[in-house]
Write a structure and sequence with these properties.
mainly alpha; DUF6734; 7 helices; DUF6734 domain-containing protein
């Protein structure tokens, strides 16, 4: 089985310097916390899967290229997985093709509002068109996904945590990411 983590950098780009756009830091309060969250995500995955491949765009490669590959080698954009490699090849190719065909139109759309189309809707529609069954990690998720952002009770009561949009702007969530990084020695390694 091949384990792939992905990082799409386009939502972190801010072309309008006058706009208050939290997407420039991946939705986090700071670029530092954004980078720590990427490192933490990869390190957590590597506990289960020692061999992980990175799938990213050119800017994502530039952002990650100087990182020591003996430490952090990839970035997780959420949990999506399976064993149908052809499905994922088709999904990735078609999603990037759709993005590339519509680059000009992205300038007229608020950043961060279109990625759900490529990440979730297109994934669902492609799986449905092929008659593939989709499973979920969690049985029940609240409507506003508050269960996913409870850093303080993970892993004691929650088996999974995912900082979605609004949680990345919460100083408490950002502090929890920093504390979690201490256990991996990230601060000492990168002289943070």
């Amino acid at each position: 089985m091949k384990i792939v983590q992905s990082y799409w950098s386009l939502p972190t780009k801010n072309n309008d310097k006058h706009e208050n756009n939290e997407r420039t830091t991946g939705g986090w309060l700071s670029e530092r916390t954004h980078a720590m969250s990427l490192a933490l995500s990869c390190l957590k995955c590597k506990q289960l899967y020692p061999e992980i491949e990175l799938y990213t765009d050119e800017s994502g490669h530039d952002f990650l290229a100087d990182i020591d590959t003996n430490s952090i080698v990839s970035v997780n954009a959420g949990i999506t997985g399976g064993n149908d490699l052809e499905f994922f090849k088709t999904f990735g190719s078609a999603a990037f093709s759709m993005v590339n065909r519509n680059k000009e139109k992205f300038r007229h759309v608020k950043p961060g509002k279109t990625n759900v189309i490529f990440e979730q809707l297109y994934f669902y529609l492609l799986a449905q068109s092929r008659g593939l069954q989709i499973g979920t990690l969690l049985d029940n998720v609240t409507e506003n996904s508050t269960d996913l952002v409870k850093f303080s009770v993970t892993p004691m009561t929650n088996k999974y945590v995912h900082a979605i949009g609004y949680a990345k702007q919460n100083p408490v969530s950002c502090n929890h990411v920093g504390v979690a990084c201490v256990g991996y020695g990230i601060y000492q390694y990168y002289n943070c």
